Amino acid sequence: MTTAATSFTVLVPVKPPVRGKSRLAGLPDDQRQRLAAAFALDTITAARATASVGEVMVVTDDHAFAATARERGCTVLPDGVSGDLNATLVQAAHEAVRRWPGSGLAALCADLPALRPEDLAGALAQVPAGGAAFVADAHGTGTTMYAAAVGHFDPHFGVGSRAAHLRAGATEIPGRIASLRHDVDDVGDLGRALVLGVGTETALASGR
User: Fold this and answer.
1) What are the two backbone dihedrals, phi and then psi, of residue 8, each rounded to the nearest 5 degrees?
2) Cα–Cα distance between 88 and 22 in angstroms, integer?
């Protein structure tokens, strides 16, 4: 009988900070870049601290961020398919399966600065055996996490990703899990994340 995964490899795609978070309008470019890097660092730190996460693989072409991620215990892989996030994640998933066979797979947005390990663990515990599941963002239209058993990894990130994942047969994970739903795309999102309580890197970058 197929059983649900008890350990997951988490894939975190990270844009080079110079290109990340362009919608943080009104902020100086250097602060926007610092915040983008800080969001990603707090996200991978929380993922690394999650009991059901065995490995964190950062997918990025940013050499400076890659070096920092390695220092924090992550495996790093370059972007596989330029301009196609879902294809890049699928390629990274194949590499993760090669390195850590038997582990479940989860793709996590890199802009979750308030992420708490217990929220991520609670969501991963609801991934069905032999299937896929996702967490919708706070706006109810996007996706912050997609996870699946090996052989069922078929992410559909992008505009309208919640609906796309439902059409693909993935199960929507219920529950409050606020820290896993609050990704940061604009200044308003950042304010809400700060109210929830952000990680050390984001607190420093935002002057808190």
Assistant:
1) -125, 145
2) 21
Give the model's pLDDT for residue 23.
63
DSSP label of 131: S
pLDDT at 122 over 60: yes
Q: What is the DSSP string of 27-56?
A: S-HHHHHHHHHHHHHHHHHHHHT-TTEEEE
pLDDT at 60 over 60: yes
Interstrand relation of 104-108 and 53-60 (parallel, antiparallel or unpaired): unpaired
Please check the confidence at residue 2 and state whether its pLDDT lies above 60: no
Question: Is the predicted pLDDT of residue 15 greater than 90, yes or no?
Answer: no
Strand partners, 24: none
pTM greater than the 0.90 cutoff: yes
Q: Domain boundaries in the chain? A: 8-199
d(Cα 205, Cα 43) in Å, to the nearest integer? 14
Query: Does the 8-199 domain belong in CATH 3.40.47.10?
Result: no
Nearest alpha carbon to residue 155 among 48, 81, 72, 66: 81
Handedness of CA 10, 39, 15, 66 (dihedral sign): negative
CA distance 5 to 109: 20
188-199 pLDDT, tens digit per residue, is 899 999 999 999
